[in-house]
Amino acid sequence: MNIKKYTKTLIISGITVIGLSLASFTDPGERFFEIAKNLDIYATLFKELNRYYVDEINPNKTIKTSIDAMLKSFDPYTVYYAEDDIEDYMTMTTGKYNGIGIVTGLRQGKTVIMLIDEGTPAEKAGLRIGDEIVKVDGVDLKTRKNVDPSKLIKGQTGTAVKLAVKRYGSEKLEEISVVRDVVKMKNVTYYGMINDEVGYIDLKDFNSTASKEMRQAFTELKGKGMKKLVVDVRENPGGLLNMAVDICNIFVPKDAEIVTTKGKVQEWNKTYSAMNQAIDTEMPMTVLTNSRSASAAEIVAGVIQDYDRGVLIGQRSYGKGLVQVTRDLPYNTKFKVTTAKYYIPSGRCIQAIDYAHRNTDGSAGKLPDSLKKEFKTVKSGRKVFDGGGVAPDVEVDKPALSSVTTAAVQKYLLFDYAIKYHYEHPSIKSAKEFALNESEYQDFVKWAGSQEFDYTTQMEKDLATLEASTKKEKYFNDVAEQLKALKTKLTHAKEADLVKFKDEIKPLLEQEIVVHYYLQKGTREQSFAKDPEIQAALKLFSDMPRYEAILKGNK
């Protein structure tokens, strides 16, 4: 398309779309002029940029950059999907894609398999976590730096992709042919019995099959004798609103109000109620949340709390009480726009009042009491509050990890050692039973000490700040010897730190090792005995008078 035609199309499209909603403004004539004027300026600027800029510009990339920058001024959930991103958008909403079921990542310039989904072609073909993919259908990934490996690996169902992989301990390339299939990303990544009477369901997404998976898991566990339930929505980013409604309907009765949406477009406002008979409205249950439980996950947690149907355990949730609608745009592009806020049965909205300023983990910061509004739960009338996410009934502190532990995770030290361990140990005990003995942990410490990874402790950071201050205020010469002695004393030794913080590092290392043998299922089963939120749920279930007291507002 030539630039004049492109510019004309851009202006006409923009004016047409925005003109549809002019009736909602008190002074449509003036607003229409401002919109048309700015679109004209934008289109003219783009034309001049294209004509005179020293280098060739990519129109698609440039326009997307400008759109993304514009949308960034609104909220984090109003997003534009270019044509190249539509496949990822469809995967996100449907939970399906055509491929082999792996997640790859770059490790020291190499394309490495970081995760394999259970039951997928990749697992069946014998691929392992930690395998380096050198070639895809003959394409050498080391020489083709601009190639996205995932796009090469994905393809039409029934076709084969040939991978040349290199395994730990060998320089030999191994050719593995994998037949692509429809890979279904599970919403319920694991379900099973923690003990004879407590069931556990790990709900990690809300795509189009979430409620079906949840109902199946619950029914099977109930058939195995489950008398109490733990639902885990930690790290769940949310998804489809209707799936959240259907999942709530498993536990609350037909016709019970689930969620109400309210926005500028009045005809889109709606109250969603439970459409079906509940499967179980009496079984004691707990819901585990953390600062990354968002959106639809917060609806489920909030509804369970509002109806006094179960006890929430963990940390305050993310605080996303906004509803998005996806609109189709020209040329196979899409626009996801925030259209409303949602309100749960108590009447509260859990949207963080200020979503532009969050904690480092993305969660809502602590709100002053003066900004909180009190509400009452439906059944017992206990106090709950709006804004900044859903607060748990039983809070479990999430202790900050030491610098060495954080570095070991972020710099893939645990991941790399798990690859080595898997190579040296063809089999291990079951996930629930597996644990490293003292000798094995010391082997890890010795190996880790030889690796090129480093970190700065908080004390070292504080000392550097103090040293800078003494230099700025010209006291450095007076305290130089003391600072030098303190620096020597505080300078960390990697192996010593790995021993000192063993209680933090060892469970994470064991979990990383287990996933290499038993994938996602093993990760969950291995964590049952050590997970603080799961242990808090089991402790509460062993004290049912306390459980009942919490639901009645008598903590």
Overview of this protein structure:
- This protein is α+β, with helices and mostly antiparallel strands.
- It has 5 domains: 3-57; 96-184, Pdz3 Domain (Roll), CATH 2.30.42; 188-398, 2-enoyl-CoA Hydratase, Chain A, domain 1 (Alpha-Beta Complex); 403-455 and 493-536, no CATH class; 458-490.
- It contains 18 helices and 21 strands.
- The strands form 6 sheets. A 6-stranded mixed sheet has the order 10-11-12-15-16-21, with helices on both faces. Strands 1, 13, 14, 17 and 18 form a 5-stranded antiparallel sheet that branches.
- It is globular and about 65 Å long.
- Mean pLDDT is 89; it is low at 1-25.
Summarize the structure.
With 555 residues, the protein is α+β, with helices and mostly antiparallel strands. The chain has helices at residues 3-19, 28-52, 59-71, 86-94, 121-124, 149-153, 210-223, 241-248, 296-306, 403-410, 413-424, 438-449, 458-472, 476-490, 494-500, 502-527, 532-541, 544-551, and strands at residues 79-81, 96-99, 102-107, 110-116, 132-136, 139-140, 160-166, 173-179, 181-184, 188-193, 198-203, 228-232, 257-263, 270-273, 285-289, 311-314, 322-329, 333-343, 374-376, 383-385, 394-395. 39% of the residues lie in helices and 20% in strands.
List keywords for this structure.
6-stranded mixed β-sheet; alpha+beta; 18 helices; 2-enoyl-CoA Hydratase, Chain A, domain 1; Pdz3 Domain
Number of helices: 18
Q: Residue share in helices?
A: 25-40%
CATH topology of the largest domain: 2-enoyl-CoA Hydratase, Chain A, domain 1
Low-confidence stretches: 1-25
Mean pLDDT: 89
Number of domains: 5
Structural class: alpha+beta
Side by side, the strands of the main sheet go: 10-11-12-15-16-21
Task: Tell me which CATH architecture of the largest domain applies here.
Answer: Alpha-Beta Complex
Described by the principal axes of the CA atoms, the overall outline is globular
Strand content: 15-25%
Cα radius of gyration in angstroms: 27 Å
Number of strands: 21
